[in-house]
Amino acid sequence: MSPKTKPAVRKFRWVYALMLAVPACIVLYCAAHSSTPQGSYYDPDLGTVGNTYWEFRAGKIFLRTPRSEDLQGAYVSTGGVWLAEGGRCVLRPSPFGIALVDPEDRLPNRFLFRRGLGWVADFRNWMRDLTTNGR
User: Which range of residues forms the domain containing residue 126?
Assistant: First the structure.
């Protein structure tokens, strides 16, 4: 190996190491960030006009509109499980959104995408409408 190729090999190793390290750091950040429900979530079923979304912040649940911020409830961690509505709803956060699970199976489970990913919910609902209406 000539002396000129050694720096190129070292440079390639650094680039390769960075290509592995950066995605690993992103995954770790997302895992740590999604361990709490804190964040903003898009709900396609709200039926409101404008920029309306759910915000989970500091143990409280707010419904935010362009003109108001209404307190709707609270959430708490008990034994490593996130609960809302006095334990009637289990919250399962992920990097993409939050699952709202009824532990007694009285109500259907829901998944709210994080703001910025709301288009995924709209596309999913649009596809569901296409298949159920036969258009």
Answer: 34-133
